[in-house]
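hey m, so remember when u said the tokens were messed up on ur end? i reran from scratch. heres the input so u can diff it against urs
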Amino acid sequence: MGYINDSLSNDEEIKALFKLHWFSKIPMIIWIILSIPTFGATLLLAIWEWLRLRSIEQGVTNKRVILKKGIVSRKSEEMKIASVETVEIIQGVIGRIFGFGTIKVTGRGISDLIFKNVDDPMDVKKKIESVEIR
């Protein structure tokens, strides 16, 4: 079980979990490749990157938009669905070609949730905007 599942309140259900695009694994792959000529010295960096990617949880429930990061420590950012004002897609040329991007969820006040390297950002935007407010 993950953080999102463990933090559900009464009458709260997960509507969607957002996956990272395979492009986000490129730094880890580079560290693995570099570990060959450095006799494994960069392998620790590759393991750290793998753990970092595994620790990211992002999704939407019928009450909240949630982003959780952290390997040893935990940092969670949450925004109530009722507070969401805009959902923006930030996508460069490479992101358009390969189908990944950044989602910026802006809420009331100065709060933002930023989901980086999300797979199929248009679908993520639709899922966040289609949650009914209760």
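this time it looks ok to me. The chain has a mean pLDDT of 93. if urs says something different then somethings off w ur setup not the seq
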